[in-house]
Automatic annotation (TrEMBL):
Protein name (Swiss-Prot/TrEMBL): Oligosaccharide flippase family protein
One Pfam family of this chain: Polysacc_synt
UniProt keywords, alphabetically: Cell membrane, Membrane, Transmembrane, Transmembrane helix
Bilayer-spanning residue ranges: 12-34, 54-72, 92-113, 125-145, 152-171, 183-204, 216-233, 253-274, 294-317, 329-355, 362-380, 386-406, 418-439, 445-467
Main location: membrane
Lineage: Bacteria, Bacillati, Bacillota, Bacilli, Bacillales
Location(s) in or outside the cell: Cell membrane
Length: 477
């Protein structure tokens, strides 16, 4: 078991380091975007990103999870490259059709995507980005499944670095509008595709294998409603905010969301390593014990990360964002970060559903969560503004995470100390709320944040020590 955990930990560490670099670059770009774009223009950019993210789900169509399953299935080992080729062709076809629609009915698509008129060209550029990145993502997915971690890291860091560089140069020396960001993305993606051409030669096919694609889509289709529901929870709030308060509100909320993704410095690397790792050990006799250990370790690290975000984000936000028009957004970051972590954590604790190919409950629960999110957004945003949007997002993810975990445990039980995890969660929330009150809503000394930190370390640390001692006792027995 130790050898398997080391392998998972090594890949997760590399992916985490990769994401530290890319997310730090993304943070720097927030300061660039907010310097050259006002809140309203940045809100349009956020709306375009929100809708193209929805299109990304349609392009992927759950094929990432299906590919992970069939790629590691022993009886399909001889045809695993055929699965990759057909998924690549499927994604390209869907992305190309979406681009054609943006050209043929540009004005209608612009109004739908940007929530404003006059952005036809910008939306078309965004769909070109979608087309190029759909190809790159599939190749990097193949690298992950082959455990070619360094290739994924180098390609991803290079692309994000070039996006930042080109976007900055275009905004500073060409024009100060959203088009320049899209041109930067297109330039970066094109360069990466050129370097990946040798790999594309092995992956390109011009004909679908109908039987194989049927297998993929049967596995993947139940996950699509979950992806659409995820979009409704994570992105529709910006469109609703635009409807009630204008694009400026969406710009502030989008800035807060970007900062909330600090938690992904801890989660994305684990997420990228988790799917191939969990599928590769699912048949081992001690798999459930390994999964249970991972549940606890990741949850503890996540709570620690949220504490760090609540403590340091206020200062980092004001240091990075020179435009004071965006400063009010900083108070929403801790709550949004909690939602971001819960959205990640369900992927870890739902491993049993993927192993048993019982993926439909994920779609059902996220569908319910999406309905909850829409209702909360419509009710809370007119009353609470951005707080309402942040609360709706976090509560929706919280429901989905809990419901999916319960269903996964019924399908494939993993020994998990649920009561202790709930205790850790409650004490962490209390600690985070205390930190935010001290820093954002009072004139108290900042040094008082040491009190909630001490409370957090004593309570959560005590639980971890208890679980460790229990584990040693069981091993000795």
């Amino acid at each position: 078991m130790l050898k398997q955990l080391k392998r998972f930990g090594g890949d997760a560490l590399l992916y985490a380091l990769m994401n530290v670099g890319t997310k730090l670059v993304a943070f720097l770009m927030i300061s660039v975007y907010t310097r050259y774009l006002d809140a309203a223009e940045y809100g349009v950019f956020e709306n375009i990103d929100a809708v193209t993210n929805l299109m990304t789900f349609l392009v992927i169509f759950g094929t990432d999870s299906a590919l992970a399953f069939y790629f590691f299935e022993k009886k399909h080992e001889s045809r695993k490259m055929d699965y990759v080729r057909n998924v690549l062709l499927f994604r390209f076809a869907v992305a190309f059709i979406l681009y054609l629609l943006s050209v043929v009915i540009g004005s209608q698509v612009s109004l739908l995507v940007a929530q404003a008129t006059g952005y036809e060209k910008t939306v078309q550029l965004a769909f070109i980005v979608l087309l190029l990145e759909s190809l790159i993502t599939l190749v990097l997915t193949y690298f992950r499944f082959e455990f070619l971690t360094w290739r994924v890291v180098i390609s991803t860091v290079a692309r994000l670095g070039m996006v930042a560089l080109f976007s900055y140069l275009f905004l500073r020396y060409w024009e100060q509008n959203v088009d320049m960001i899209m041109f930067g993305r297109i330039a970066a993606a094109s360069i990466i595709i050129v370097f990946l051409l040798p790999q594309f030669k092995n992956l390109i096919t011009f004909r679908f294998d109908k039987k194989l694609m049927k297998e993929i889509l049967i596995y993947a289709a139940p996950l699509v409603p979950a992806s659409l529901s995820f979009w409704l929870i994570s992105a529709s709030n910006k469109l609703i905010l635009t409807g009630f308060d204008g694009p400026g509100a969406a710009g502030l909320f989008g800035t807060a969301v970007k900062f909330a993704t600090v938690i992904t410095l801890l989660t994305t690397g684990v997420q990228m390593a988790w799917r191939p790792y969990s599928m590769s050990i699912k048949d081992k006799p001690d798999a459930k014990k390994i999964f249970g250990s991972v549940y606890i370790i990741i949850f503890a690290i996540g709570m620690f990360g949220l504490m760090g975000i609540a403590t340091f984000i206020p200062a980092i936000f004001k240091w990075m964002i020179s435009n004071t028009e965006f400063h009010p957004a900083s108070v929403y970051v801790p709550l949004l970060s909690l939602g971001s972590f819960l959205n990640f954590y369900y992927l870890i604790i739902s491993v049993g559903l993927f192993i048993k190919k019982e993926t439909k409950p994920i779609s059902i629960q996220f569908g319910i969560a999406a309905i909850i999110s829409l209702i909360l957004n419509v009710v809370l945003i007119p009353i609470m503004g951005l707080w309402g949007a942040a609360l709706a997002l976090t509560l929706s993810y919280g429901y989905a995470c809990a419901a999916i975990f319960i269903k996964s445990q019924k399908t494939y039980h993993v020994p998990t100390p649920v009561g202790k995890l709930i205790f850790m969660f409650i004490t962490s929330i209390i600690s985070i709320a205390a930190i935010q009150y001290i820093l954002d809503f009072s004139d108290l000394s900042v040094w008082l944040v040491l009190v909630p930190w001490a409370f957090f370390l004593l309570t959560n640390g005590g639980v971890l020590l208890t679980l460790r001692k229990k584990g040693r006792t069981e091993e000795a027995a």
